[in-house]
Amino acid sequence: MLPWTSVLLWTLAGFLSLPDKSEPCRGNGLSMACDFIFRNVCFEFVDDSKPWSQARDSCESRGGKLLEAMSSPVKNLMKNITRGNKNIIVTWWLGEEVQVDSVLLNRVASNNSCMYVTLKPLLLILTSDCSQSRGSVCTHSLQSSSQNPVMMSSHEARPRLRRNIQGMASSIANITALLQSADDELHLIETNPGEPTNNDRDQFIQYLLAGTKTLTPSFAVQNTNVMSHIINCSTGIFLLSEKKCDIATNPNPTDLFERIFEIFRLVAILIGTANNQTLVMKLRTGTLYQRTYSPADLGHAVLGSQADGDYVVFPSYSALQAQLGVSGPIFAQMASLSDNPHPSDDNITGTVCSLLLTNGVSDITLWNLSDMIEIFLPRPDAPDVVNTTVLLTTSTKALTSFNVSDPSMTLFFSAEPSVNVTLVVALSYGSPPSSKTPNITAVLTVRDSYRWMVTPEMLQHTTGLWYIDTRLSNSSSQSDLSLKITSFMTKCLYWNMSTETWRTDGCWVGNKSTSRRTHCLCNHLTLFGSSFFVMPNYVDISQTAQLFATVSQNYVVLALLCSFFGLYLITLMWACYADHRSRLKRKITLVESNHPGALYNYLIHVQTGHRRNAGTTANVTVTLIGSEGESDAHVLTDPEKPVFEKGAVDMFLLSTAFPLGEVSNLRMQHDNSGGHPSWYVNKVIVQDLQTRHAWHFFCNCWLSADRGDNMTKKTFNAAKSNEIASFRNIFQSRTSTGFRDEHIWVSIVNPPSRSPFTRAQRVSCCMSLLLCTMAINIAFWNVPLDPNAPVIFQIGSLQITWQEFMVGVECGLLMFPINILIITIFRSIRARVVSKPQEDENVTLRAAGINVPAILKETEVIIYTVSSSPRNKLSEISKLESSSDLYYALDRLHEFVQLMQGESESDQHWVYCSKFLLAGLCHLLMCLEKLDERNFPHPQEYQQVLNITNLLVRKTEMVFSSHLACCPTPVKRTKRKMTGGFWLPWWFAFVGWFLLLSISGVSTYFTLLYSFQYGKDKSIKWVLSLGLSLFQSIFVLQPLKVLGVAVVFALLLKPVAVEETEEVEQVLLEQQAKCRRYSGRETL
Question: Where is the signal peptide (predicted)?
Fold first, then answer.
C-alpha cells in the first residue's frame, strides 16, 4: 500500500486590518507629540498644568488648538484612558467653543469663564476660575502634516489605554479566553501609537506559548480552528512588532523569530502526533513542513515540496544513527521562509530554510556527520542570467572576467558550444591566464554539461578580479563554432544562535545549484566532541629488574637514549668552550680617554648588525651632543677583547665633566683602518646612569668608504617616543631577541651576549626537556587502539594515525610546566661578578713625569673641558708656553670659581662642574708640590703659584660643598634593586642543576621501564610519535610562543629601559679609583 499524504492548509485572511504601515506611525520622527490619533486628528494630552490662557497659547504655538469636539468616539477614547494609575491628571482644559454630540456649547461672553473636562466621572464643567492650573487636550490636524509634523511620544510617561495583557496571564488555562484577550490586545496595538512596547510584546508571546503548552494532541486535532487562531495571533504580534513606529531606535531582539516560531512548531507537533502523515502549514511568513519518522526511516528521507523546489534530503541512517540517541518517533520540521528573519549585510536573497529534529521533549543536535544533509533553496527573485555568445576558433580564446566581492562565494561557469567538442578552461587572479601566471585548469565535455563549479578554495578565498579563458582542446577537430557563456555566484550560510551571525563554516554549495535554486550541503561541526586528554598507562615499578632483563630483546629505546646522551656530551663540551669565549667578551669597557676627574657617567650600548661582514677592524670614535654641551671625541676600544664583531652588543662607560642635558645627537666615525674597516651599525642606546634616562639611536646603516652611501662619519638623531614605542620597533626587537633567548633550541647557537643563561645550561635544559618529552610521550603511548582512526600520513608500510597525532599534541602541552620551571631558574640567576684586585692607590707619581710643561698641558685640558659648556661662560685660552702663562690661566679659573659661587640656584651641572674643577686643581697642587723652585725662573714665582693653587682648591671645595648641600647627587646604586625584575642569587644555580639532573634521571628511568614493558614492535611505533612531538615543540610551539610574546609586548607594553647590572657598578668603581689616583684625595 502506497503511503499517502494529508495536507492541512492554514491561511491568514483578513485578520489584520492595518496597511503596510499602521496609522499611528504617520509623521513618525516629526515635531508634535501625539498620544492618540483618530480620524486624522492628533490628540495630545498635555500633563503640564497651566491656567487656561497659557494652555491655549501653548497649544496654538505648536500649531494646534484646544479640543472643541466631544463626539461619542472621543468620549469612549477618554473613558478608556488607563485607570490603574491613581496619579493621573483627571481634569483637562478644553477650547472656547465645544461641540458635544452636534450641540454647540458657546463660551459665556465674559472672559472669566472657561470649560474643562473631568475623567472621574466624564463631565464637562464651565467655570469662571480660569486661573487654576490644569492639564489640557491639544488637537492637531494631520492633513497638513507637511507643515505641522507629528511625533509619537513615549507611552511610558503618558496615559495609556486599558490593556488586556493581564487578562491573558489569568486565562492561560482557558485557551478560549486567552485567545479573546489576545485579539483585544492586538486590536489595541494596531490602533495606538508606540505599540507594542517591549514588555507587552514579550509577555504576549510568553502567555500565548504557555497557553498552547496546556493543550493536548487530541484537542488540537478536534479543534483545528483554535490552532489556526493561535497561529493568527502569533503571526499578528510578529508583524506588528516588525512594523512598530520606533523600530529604528528600538529594534526587536534577534531571537524574536525563534520565539514566535516555537509556537508554530508546538502547534505542528500537537497536530502531527496523532498521525504519521506530512503536515503542511501555510503561514504568512512561509511554509512549515512536518513529518514523524522512526529513526531508521529518517535515512534518505525527503521533507518539503519538491514541486516548489524547497526541500531537504537527509543522509543515510548509518550516518545519523550514532547521534540520534532515541528509539522513539522523531519529529522532523522544515520551515521555508520567504523573508530573512535575521537581516544582515550578507546579502541573503531567496528562500530561507529552517530544519529541526525533536523527539517531542528536546531538540536533537547533529554534527560531524559522515554524509551531508542536502538542502535545496529556491531563488524565485534571482535576476536572469546574462548569456554571452562568442565565436571560437582553434587559434582564439574566449576570455571572461568576474569581480568576486565575497571570499565565500562559489562560482558556476558554463560554456555551451554549438557542436559537441572538448573545451579547456583556465582560472587566474588579477590578469588573464598565461604560461607565466599560476592558474587552475579543467576540461569541459558534454558529460558534465560544459559546466564548471569554482569553489572558494579554488578562488583562494580572495576577492578581486578573476579571469577564465576558454579554448578548444588540442584533440578537437572542429575549427569554428559559437560558444554561449553564462555564469552566476552563490553561497550557503546558516544562522549561528550563539554568535547571532550568519556563518558559512560547515556548509558548502552543491553541484546541483542553478541560477534559480541553491543546493547546499551542510555538516555543522563542533570543537567539543569528546574527551581531549588520555590517562597515562600503569607500570609496575616493582617489576623493574624483570623488565630491564629483557634489554637484549628490546634495545631500540636504549640505543636511542645512548645516541642522545652521546650527542649531548659532544654538544656540552662545545657549549662550555663557547661560554668561556663569551665571558671574555662580556665585560663593560671603561673608555680609556675618559678624563680622570670626570664623574658624570653615560653607559653606551652599541649593537652591530647581523649582516655579512658587518663587524669592523677600524677604530671607532663617538661624540655625544646634548642640549647643554657636547663630550670630547672618545675612541671606543678595549685592549682585552675584540669589539664591534658581527651581531655583538658592546657596552662602554663614557664619563664627562658635567651633564650634557638632553642628548639629541650622536656623532660616530672610524678611521677606515684594518683589514675589514666597513661597519654596519644597527642601534646605539645611550643611558644616563644618574637620571636613568635612555636615548635610542636607530642607525641601521653602513659606516664604510665603499658600501652604503660611502661615508665613514655620520651624525644620528635620537629617536622620538612614538618611534621607540612603535609596533614595528618593539616587535622586531622582541622577535630577534626572542628567538635568540626564548626559543630554547635555537638559542644554543647564538644566545644574547649578556644573558646569565649560558650555552651549557641551555644544552642541558634541552636534554632534560627531551628526556621529559620521551617519558610523558611513552607513558601515554600504549592506549587502546582505535581501528577507525584515520591515517593522516603514510610512507610505505609506516603510517601515522590521528590517534598518534593527538598523543603528540598532549605531550607538547604537558611540557610547558616543566619548561617554565627549569628554564626560569637559570634565566633568573644573577650573574656572579668577581671583583678585580684594586691597584695600589698610594703609588706616588714619578718625579720624572712631572715638569712645568706637563702642568701647563693639564691646565689647558681643565680650562678646555670646562669651557665646552655654554653655561660656564668661560672662553678657551691660547696655548700656555711658559710658567708666566700659568698666572693668567689660574686667574681665569678663579673667575670661574667666583661665577659658580654667585649662582644662587644649584643643580647637577654646578655640582659636577665644581667637582671636576676640584679634582683638577687638587691634581695641579699635588704636581706642584712634587716640584721645587728650581723649575721656575724665580723662587718667588713658584711660591706664588703654589699659594694661588692652594687658595683655589679651598675656594672650589667650599663652592662644591655649597652646591652639593642644595642639590645632592643621586643615591648610590650598589643596594638598588635591578630593573630587570626578580633575580635569584648566584648560588641558586646549584638548585637548578639538581632539579635538572633529577628530572633527567627520573625521565630516563621511566622511559626505559615503559619501553621494556611495551616490547620491540610498539617501541618502534612510539619513536614515530616522539619525532612528531619534537617537531611540534621545536618548529610550532616554541616559535608561536616567541611571536606571541613579541605581539603582546608590541601591543600592550612599553619598551623596557636598559637594565643596570652589577658589572656597571664594577666599572663605575674603576672610574672613581682613577679619580682618586688623579686628585690624590680619598673623597671629593
Answer: 1-24
Cβ-proximal residues to 206 (8 Å cutoff; 6+ apart), any chain = none
Single out the residue of 609, 381, 507, 307 nearest to residue 289, CA to CA.
307
Q: What is the pLDDT of residues 904-940, one digit of tens each?
A: 777 888 899 999 999 999 998 898 888 877 778 787 8
Give me the mean pLDDT over the 801-807 stretch. Answer: 64
Confidence of residue 141 (pLDDT cuts 50, 70, 90): confident
Q: Collapse the DSSP code of 664 into the 3-class scheme (helix H, G, I; strand E, B; otherwise coil) and give the result.
A: strand
Would you say 291 and 314 are in contact if contact means Cβ atoms under 8 Å apart?
no
Higher pLDDT, 1067 or 6: 1067
Higher pLDDT, 50 or 43: 50
- The residue with cell 669597557 is 589
In what order do the strands lie in the sheet containing 373-378?
302-305, 310-313, 373-378, 517-522, 507-509
- Asked if residues 704 and 712 have their Cβ atoms less than 8 Å apart, the reply is yes
Three-state secondary structure call for residue 289: strand
For residue 1024, the Cα-to-chain-centroid distance in whole angstroms is: 36
Q: Give yes or no for a contact between 623 and 666, defined as CB atoms under 8 angstroms apart.
A: yes
Is residue 11 pLDDT above 50, yes or no? Answer: no
User: For residue 365, how many other CB atoms are within 10 A of its CB?
Assistant: 11
Taking the C-alpha atoms of residue 953 and residue 888, their distance in angstroms, rounded to an integer, is 17
The predicted pLDDT at position 32 comes to 54
Task: Decide if 680 contacts 934 (C-beta within 8 A).
Answer: no
- Fold observed for domain 591-704: Lipoxygenase-1 (2.60.60)
Residue 471 in 3-state DSSP? Answer: strand
DSSP letters, 795-824, are ETTEEEEHHHHHHHHHHHHHHHHHHHHHHH
Task: Out of 3.30.1150, 1.20.120, 1.10.10, 2.60.40, select the CATH number for domain 852-966.
Answer: 1.20.120
Give φ, ψ of 617 to 5 degrees.
Answer: -105, 0
Closest alpha carbon to 618 in 660, 669, 664, 671: 671
CA angle 824-825-831, nearest 5°?
110
Q: How confident is the model at residue 221 (pLDDT cuts 50, 70, 90)?
A: confident
Q: How far is CA 1045 from CA 742, 752, 820, 1034, 1039, in A?
A: 9, 17, 14, 16, 10
- Residue pair 44/138 in contact by the 8 Å Cβ criterion: yes
Q: Quote the CA–CA distance of 67 and 96 in Å, as a whole number.
A: 9
- Tell me the pLDDT tens digit for each residue of 877-907: 778 878 778 888 888 888 888 888 887 777 8
Domain boundaries, the chain: 36-98+113-141, 172-275, 541-586+726-830+983-1053, 591-704, 852-966
Give 561's Cβ-side CA count (13 Å radius). 22
Distance between CA atoms of residues 320 and 299, nearest Å: 7
Alpha carbon 184 to chain centroid distance? 52
Q: What percent of the chain has pLDDT over 90?
A: 13
Max mean pLDDT range (420-424, 823-827, 838-842): 420-424
Please give the helix or strand (H or E) that residue 156 lies within, else none: none
Q: Which residues contact 264 (CB under 8 A, 6 or more apart)?
A: 231, 234, 281, 283, 288, 335
What is d(CA 413, CA 442) in angstroms, rounded to the nearest whole number? 11
Please tell me the number of Cα atoms within 13 Å of 247 on its side-chain side: 12
User: Comparing 36-98+113-141 with 591-704, is the CATH topology the same?
Assistant: no
Tell me the chain's radius of gyration from C-alpha atoms: 46
Query: In this structure, are residues 137 and 66 in contact, taking their beta carbons and an 8 Å threshold?
Result: yes
Pick the CATH number of 36-98+113-141 from 3.40.50.150, 2.60.40.10, 3.60.15.10, 3.10.100.10: 3.10.100.10
**Alpha-carbon gap, residue 937 to 129, rounded angstroms:** 125
Question: Rounded to the nearest 5°, which phi and psi values hold at 547?
Answer: -70, -40
More confident residue, 1013 or 574: 574
